[in-house]
């Protein structure tokens, strides 16, 4: 992978919001966002939550990237959740817990609101905040060793409401209640059956299959994909402005050079070369 050099975001107080355990890399047309904390099964610390939005924005702004893939570092886990070892400090009382939840929520929102398509590549444990990160992505492809759980009820903590809404959107209200109320673990087969993930593949093939999915998406017209993503978001939104954004995105497709390219390629029976403009 080629590392993508990007300026750091600025956190509250003017300090750079960076963390070496969260990094990005570009393998055009794919941009990788890697949670690289394998000694803790890729648990996410407060510093990592803070750093995540700027890294998503950097990949979103990179012209060579057409699809963003979220993955865990190493071979053992996707994301095992928030780093509980630091909770005594970062969630020591109601005020610090609220501040933590604001940072947590901003990380989920960064993925949810990314302009480019996002894919979660899931292996091994996907727990708590890991489920939240995966659910905030557009698509989820899981290995057959993946295990899912939201253990908030065993920790006495609350999950951010927008992140709960992401889970409900995938599995429905009743199944979401089952997951949150029982805090039980789901294997890959149940996760697929209830719609928590979109595809399950053998663990040995996870990277290959994820690359194939991402490259298929990347080969299609970026403006069309953006218009579809905007329209789907509008379909489940109560915000009247969302429908207007969806219409504008659709109209942009028909005034684009990609529209002409797609039409000409179809008539010439050749593969189109879309440029996103």
Description:
It is a single chain. With 277 residues, the protein is α/β, with parallel strands linked by helices. It folds into 2 domains: 2-219, Alpha-Beta Complex (2-enoyl-CoA Hydratase, Chain A, domain 1); 222-268. Helices cover 48% and strands 16% of the residues. It is built from 12 helices and 12 strands. The protein has helices at 46-61, 87-90, 94-112, 129-136, 152-155, 161-171, 173-182, 188-194, 206-219, 222-235, 240-254, 257-268, and strands at 2-3, 9-10, 16-17, 22-27, 30-35, 67-72, 118-122, 125-127, 139-143, 147-149, 186-187, 199-201. The strands form 3 sheets. A 7-stranded mixed beta sheet has the order 1-4-5-6-7-9-12. A 3-stranded mixed beta sheet has the order 8-10-11. It has a two-stranded antiparallel sheet with strand order 2-3. A hairpin with a 5-residue loop joins strand 2 and strand 3. Helix 1 runs parallel beside helix 3, helix 3 runs parallel beside helix 4 (129-136) and helix 4 crosses helix 6. It is globular and about 60 Å long. The two termini are 27 Å apart. 38% of the residues are buried. The model is unreliable at 1-16 (pLDDT under 50).
